Amino acid sequence: MKISIVSLGCSKNLVDSEIMSGALTRSGHEISTEDDADVIIVNTCGFIGDAKKESIDTILELSERKMSGSCSKLIVTGCLVERYAEVLKNELPEVDAFWGTGNLLKINEVLEDRRPGAIHKNPPGTIYDPDTPRVMLTPKHYAYVKVSEGCSRTCSFCIIPKMRGVMKSRPVASIVGEAESLVRQGVREINLIAQDMTSYGRDIGTSLEAMLRELAQVDGLRWIRIHYCYPWGITDSLVELIAREEKILPYIDMPLQHISERVLKAMDRKTPPARIREILKKLRDGIDDVVLRTTFIVGFPGETDDEFEELLEFVEEAGFDRAGAFKYSQEEGTPAGSMHEQVPDDVKDERHERLLEAQSEISLRKNLSLVGTVHEGFIEGEENGDYIARIPSQAPEVDGYTYVKKTGNPKLKTGDLVNIKITDADVYDLRGEVIL
Ligand code: SF4
Predict the structure, then answer these.
(1) Class of 374-435 per CATH?
(2) Is residue 229 a contact partner of residue 282, using CB atoms and an 8 Å limit?
(3) How far apart are the CA of 368 and the centre of ligand 1, in A?
(4) pLDDT for residue 265 is more than 90
(5) 76 CB burial (10 A radius; 0-12, 13-18, 19+)
(6) What is the value of pTM for the model shown?
(7) By the 8 A CB rule, do 422 and 435 touch?
(8) In angstroms, what is the span from residue 426 Cα to ligand 1's centroid?
(9) CATH class for domain 2-120?
(10) How large a percentage of the chain has pLDDT more than 70?
């Protein structure tokens, strides 16, 4: 059968969609586009309000395709199923079956299930099977590698531990084995992802550092990028390893969520403000040209004007290279979801806008300071007569790009690694020229 997978949400969901594509291909099916598909799978996100709405809208839109007969089966998978399987089954009779986030290598079983609206919720299964390689949905030169599933932390606003279970780390050998297989397929950049990266390995007697040391031995791998660090797990030895190991990019993605002592406590975030500042200093002192990315939540229940001002001052003081912000989303099933003093939406909107405004001035200043510097970068494609590239400080899909004029440059193709001199910048993107 021809099967199309619509992948919504974060990079972890994208990897799940690639795993499902690999399992279906191994079972003799063909991964196709929506227009061509007999079966459409919607891999949903159920993290916060906006993501849930996007998932439902997508399911409804694709239901029409099924009703019009352009595909025969519609299957819904992922986090939304983990949270609302029974509700979805009752509300969406046009969906043939539901599959949660677990045991994705067995996804083909759902195609054989004739029960209308069958629900398959499985415990987290194997993330990687060497005999069932993923079908990559990213350009060939970079990939995401999920190093663990689930999270054992208890942030009061977060539903992920309920959707994905407690943290289960993959053995180092499995991660290194997959990296070697990806490099054989042309991958040069690996983006490591998890819910809580810095806790990797604690449940299996190893550590993030130990895994990184082994991963850095993989021949042909050029860039290793670390995402989703939890501040508490940033150790001296990790900082030293990143500073020393050329393949590990000086790039740290570390969601902090807030800086006010009271708000961090109410969020059940285990890292107090003073420790956060220490960690930022340790990263900047320990790793040359380190790029720091973070995310904040505005409008958490009870957040006062003063606490928001404190956060805004911190954003200006800390000067992150990248900082995103979410408006707090009241999620049933989370401790914060039943807290009093929920902040009105218009206040959340205003705080969200002010924080992004403050960060945009910092991002512009940081980007302009790169003018005149030279970096290696991967060509990502072309747009409006320019090549699009990414330098080490630009993660795929979440950070900006570097635009390089085509004229006067040799013919380049996606995945080429070139040296780029930065010539100009704006808040999000850079401009540059290829240095031959
Ligand atoms: S560390 Fe991240 S995934 Fe885990 S509970 Fe906190 S916010 Fe959720």
Answers:
(1) mainly beta
(2) no
(3) 33
(4) yes
(5) buried
(6) 0.95
(7) no
(8) 32
(9) alpha beta
(10) 99
